[in-house]
């Protein structure tokens, strides 16, 4: 295809899916003349050039309140290019833009296309015939097209060899959250006295945190850490002294983070299911890659791609609250737009007792998994079902 005409839309998927599937030589975006941020087109070009080397991109402002002016602008641009192999995608943009586009396509005899983002196909509106199936997208496609960039991960993803040990340790801790809370505080206090690269730790059994509160570790948890390889050379003189070494720097980070075990548990379940692509752990994103200021937005616990749709997962090793739901909702809308999914995994009994947070999650169009799901033997399949059965079409009519 020589030329594809698009109406720019705030939802990034509507701007990139058809171009990436049809791979034209040139794309023209018509956009609302009230827009001021032209960096959005630099972002789109970055995404498209990585997938279609040498692609040309142009953009023209239009008055979105006048069907006649939009129609005349489209006609002038098409006539000026004099390209016969041309198509107009009526997926993004405002209602009047779509009306004007239909009028222009009919008069100029240009194929009118529509991209079904949920069913992953592009059809010709004249006869509903299939033009193309949409291709698989990556998280990098979304981030580039949104003008953002990855800033790394708060925790390095574990190797597959560590998956079984992490899962067993996580379940062990989930069943002893009260003891884990005090043990984690103890380890954090001990580690704070050492250099970042040190692995050997030595401390009195009873110590005080900065706030003056006394803490001491749980012996069973320390022994389990050693049994599964997160610690070694453990020596305990209960009530008096404890010594141990972390096996690696990553293990040190895991052992001083109370909630990371649920993030790891969910990450491993998603990765091992074999159903998803681009599974990322503890991702930090700079939402504006072009302002010369490196600032990380909210960390997203787990991100993955489900058949070209982004899924954002928030993990809470406690009861989820309204703030947690809102944070997840904002993150998913900001990066993925309407065509994205949000899952919150919380170690509580939200679903069983149907408390307010569970009902609020349903109202916001978020899926929720609780402690019953987490501790189930088939948690990975429950996670897959929660994502796959998350019906975006039904969300269209929810009051979100």
From TrEMBL:
Residues 258-370 form the Card1 endonuclease domain. Gene3D superfamilies: 3.40.1350.10, Hypothetical protein VC1899 like domain (Restriction endonuclease-like). InterPro entries: Card1_endonucl_dom (IPR015093), Restrct_endonuc-II-like (IPR011335), tRNA_endonuc-like_dom_sf (IPR011856). SUPFAM superfamilies: Restriction endonuclease-like. One of its GO terms (molecular function) is nucleic acid binding. This is Card1 endonuclease domain-containing protein. It comes from Anaerotignum neopropionicum.
């Amino acid at each position: 295809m020589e030329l594809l005409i698009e109406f720019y839309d705030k939802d990034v998927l509507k701007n990139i899916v058809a171009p990436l599937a049809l791979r034209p030589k040139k794309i023209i975006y018509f956009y609302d003349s009230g827009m001021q941020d032209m960096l959005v087109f630099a972002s789109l070009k970055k995404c498209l050039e990585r997938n279609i080397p040498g692609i040309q991109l142009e953009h023209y402002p239009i008055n979105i309140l006048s069907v006649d002016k939009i129609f005349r602008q489209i006609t002038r641009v098409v006539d000026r290019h004099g390209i016969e192999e041309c198509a107009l995608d009526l997926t993004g943009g405002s209602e009047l833009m779509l009306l004007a586009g239909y009028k222009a396509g009919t008069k100029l005899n240009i194929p009118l296309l529509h991209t079904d983002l949920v069913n992953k196909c592009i059809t010709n509106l004249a006869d509903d015939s299939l033009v193309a199936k949409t291709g698989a997208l990556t998280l990098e496609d979304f981030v580039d097209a949104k003008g953002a960039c990855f800033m790394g991960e708060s925790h390095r993803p574990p190797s597959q060899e560590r998956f079984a040990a992490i899962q067993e340790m996580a379940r062990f801790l989930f069943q002893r959250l009260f003891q884990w809370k005090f043990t984690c505080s103890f380890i954090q206090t001990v580690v704070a006295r050492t250099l970042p690269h040190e692995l050997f730790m030595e401390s009195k059994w009873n110590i005080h945190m900065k706030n003056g509160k006394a803490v001491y570790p749980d012996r069973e948890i320390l022994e389990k850490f050693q049994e599964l390889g997160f610690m070694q050379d453990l020596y305990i003189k209960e009530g008096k002294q404890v010594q141990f070494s972390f096996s690696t720097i990553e293990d040190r980070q895991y052992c001083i983070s109370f909630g990371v075990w649920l993030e790891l548990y969910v990450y491993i379940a998603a990765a091992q299911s074999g159903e998803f692509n681009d599974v990322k752990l503890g991702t930090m994103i700079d939402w504006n890659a072009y302002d010369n200021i490196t600032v990380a937005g909210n960390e997203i616990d787990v991100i993955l791609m489900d058949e070209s749709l982004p899924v954002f997962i928030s993990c809470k090793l406690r009861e989820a609250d309204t703030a947690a739901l809102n944070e997840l909702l904002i993150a998913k809308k900001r990066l993925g737009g309407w065509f994205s999914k949000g899952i919150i995994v919380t170690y509580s009994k939200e679903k069983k007792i149907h408390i307010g947070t569970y009902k609020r999650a349903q109202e916001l169009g978020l899926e929720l998994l609780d402690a019953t799901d987490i501790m189930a033997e088939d948690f990975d399949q429950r996670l897959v079902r929660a994502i796959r059965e998350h019906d975006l079409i039904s969300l269209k009519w929810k009051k979100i």
